[in-house]
Design goal:
Oligomer: single chain
Helix content: 55-70%
Number of strands: 0
Number of domains: 1
Distance between the termini: 21 Å
Largest sheet: none
Radius of gyration: 11 Å
C-alpha cells in the first residue's frame, strides 16, 4: 500500500474505495495528479492531500468523486 494510504482511510471509505493490489497504482496516480505531485513522490503527494484536500470540503468532495468514478466497474 502506498506510504500515505493508511492515513486516508476515512477519505477512501467515503469514496467507497477498497484498495487492492490491482487498483492501488491507479488510486495512487489519481491522488498524485489531483494534488499536482510527480508520480511516486509520496511525501509531496501526502503533503498536498493534507494541505489541499483534508481542510477544504469542496476539494475533498472533488477527490472523493474522482476516486469513486475510477473504482466503478
Amino acid at each position: 500500500m502506498s506510504c500515505y494510504f493508511r492515513h486516508m482511510k476515512a477519505l477512501l471509505d467515503e469514496a467507497g474505495v477498497v484498495v487492492t493490489a490491482e487498483n492501488k497504482r491507479e488510486i495512487d496516480r489519481i491522488i498524485h495528479e489531483f494534488v499536482g505531485a510527480t508520480y511516486k513522490d509520496c511525501p509531496t503527494a501526502w503533503r498536498g492531500v493534507k494541505e489541499k484536500v483534508l481542510g477544504d470540503p469542496a476539494r475533498r468532495s472533488e477527490l472523493v468523486g474522482r476516486l469513486r468514478s475510477a473504482s466503478e466497474p
